Amino acid sequence: MKILIFQHLAVETAGIFTELWTNDGHTLHVIALDEGDPIPALEPYDLLAVMGGPMDVWQEAEHPWLIAEKAAIKQWVQVLNRPYFGICLGHQLLAVALGGDAQPMQTPEVGLTQISQTGAGRTDAIFGSLPETMTTLQWHGVEVTTLPPDAVVLASNAACAVQAMRVGRHAYGVQYHLEILPATVADWQAIPAYRAALHAAIGAAAADQLEADVTPLLPAFRQMAAQINRDLNDLLARA
Q: pTM value?
């Protein structure tokens, strides 16, 4: 398969999925939108994966390429009708590009939190294979507040009602981060805006402890990512 990846910051890569997809023999084409890479013709690709980033979905004046990105996502899902996988900002962009909305949260959700599957999630082709309750790494101050048409919520928690969603048959978005690698927390803390959000949300002491807290959970995160990847491969084969 050929996978097109929209990236918004050099350290917010597809992470563990890069390894999984490469091992599966897929071809990856990374577009660094924040660095000025143009969006290619979409038709040759089988999966569009859209990563996280520090910008917000409405910041088109500051990041004009968001306009073209939203248009590409809409074409991908509604016209080409092909599988989509978005993480954090990529989750929010899926909602907004297809007619939903995303707004700032009253309290950002940053750090390790629990999420639970919904009824729809327990029967979903991808989420149904995951545990009903999962520990996740969160790092966001914006959430999906209005679902686009033909969307269902697959996972939720008290802080953020739309932790995961599916739009139509095979467009998926997750608000949390399951792509993380051993160096991810340190890499993100090196970004001033990310570190400030982390300190504001959980305090300096907890922020300094976060990498140590995440490390023992990395095998479980990898296992979840690997299961999602297996189900994505099945979905791609059917699509």
A: 0.96
